[in-house]
Task: structure prediction
Amino acid sequence: MLGIVRAKGAILYDEHGVEYIDAIASWYTSMYGHCNEYILEKVQLQMAVLDQVVFSGFTHEPAIKLSEELIKILPFNQEKLFFSDNGSTATEVGIKMALQYHFNLGNKRKVLLAFEEGFHGDTFGAMSVSGLSVYNGPFEDYLIEVERIPAPTKDNIGDILRQLSERLKQNDIAGFIYEPLVQGAAAMKMHDAEELNMILDLLKRHQVLLIADEVMTGFGKTGKNFASDHILVKPDIICLSKALTAGLMPMGVTSCTQQVFDAFYSNDMAKGLFHGHTYTANPLACAAALAGLKLLQSEQIQKDIRRVISSHQAFGVKIKRHPRVASIRQCGIIFALDLDIEMERYGNLRDRLFNFFMEHGVFLRPLGNTIYILASYTITDVQLKQVYDVIELAVDTVV
Ligand SMILES: *Cc1c(COP(=O)(O)O)cnc(C)c1O
Result:
């Protein structure tokens, strides 16, 4: 276990003073760079005014302002926000919203639909809808009822739509949770907006609530503010975390439409969504999020996003030709390449790659035989080149 003592911009400094380029933005959170001066200043100001207060019966300006700013940039049909304190709770709340929405309306819809190989977090609801069984094996007997469909491709979309149409006749599916366009934990597996849109359209016409898990894809990573901005059919519920607070504080937000909200709005207590965490809407997290939103919408960051996108495109053209690279893919600033090798024969490849990258001053976390880059928008061209060079060197020498 390596001790990290300091971070600035795209650089992590370890306990021995060695520097590493954080090429995955510490799990896609610190997208404006570590210890960003603007964000630090805003949080420090907030810290001296109101640090933490119960968010039950009370409200506060940072939460109100953040709600207003988020609603402005979220897909147009999103009207209400529910605060929690991490990505798993953001999806957990989304799942509970979808199930209770139908419960409150008296619908008998108890089944959730999810993508194979999805990842939505580590709490029980989130685990249930996640498809990577290595994480969830011991708990399988305790999970809620979930059915899975494959992520769409040009080849399987016809079959998916046919089978879904048949399945939907039972009118028992409450909601569909999906990572739009990019499935992060499934090694940055990508699908097209067009095919996803067909699935969402079919489900929407059958009153299945659409829960977009944008915990990873949110806040500019796909080239637009949200992955759902690329897709015509808008979600009923959106889950947000990770880059929401620019990598400074943990927080989760689950947004929903007026229609979803209205199913809970009642004088009958039992209709309410009873879910609250002690640090819900923590003022410092709200201040960090507000500062992050300001940066995201700044001309400079938008320029940086375009810069990183075209830089990755140029690298892609080059590395694609390498004989050991099977395929490349890119969505916004998310870049991934698959190595053309048998995983069994190279069982410890992931560790060897990881160690090689670290020895060369770059922090990357390969998944299986996939190497992906998801660096901050503010990573410099020089740093990006170092990341590309070390990947090339690894593909040449380690594989
Ligand atoms: C990281 C992630 C989560 C879980 O967030 P945590 O804050 O780690 O609980 C959920 N969904 C997606 C898509 C994620 O990438």
